[in-house]
Design goal:
Oligomer: single chain
Shape: elongated
Number of helices: 0
Helix content: under 10%
Order of helices and strands: EEEEEEEEEE
Largest sheet: 6 strands, antiparallel
Number of strands: 10
Strand content: over 45%
Structural class: mainly beta
Length: 99
């Protein structure tokens, strides 16, 4: 998951979370600062809040998943920040062929 500040002012207090569908199991998540994300039993991985993201800068978060069962899956990422009135969300479709 890449988060880029395409604006002209710094974004503050950025929170990134990702949600795996039932077809996938989150194994681990690693934040842009190398810190591990918090993984829960429901397939959510949440990363530590980033204090500031300057214009033009990008944060990268890596989520490792394992196939649990076949199906059409929708992996979702969510970004919250101080200046946003509601979270930004992006979904990525994946066809899971099996364990």
């Amino acid at each position: 998951v890449r988060v880029k500040n395409q604006g002209t002012v710094s974004a503050r207090n950025i929170e990134v979370a990702a949600f795996a569908p039932q077809e996938l199991k989150v194994i681990r998540g690693t934040g842009s600062n190398g810190a591990d994300g918090r993984v829960d039993a429901n397939g959510k991985v949440a990363f530590a809040t980033v204090d500031e993201l300057k214009p033009g800068e990008t944060l990268t978060f890596t989520i490792d998943v394992e196939a649990v069962r076949s199906g059409d899956a929708r992996f979702r990422a969510e970004v919250k920040a101080e200046h946003l009135t509601r979270p930004l969300q992006e979904e990525q479709a994946a066809r899971v062929l099996g364990k």
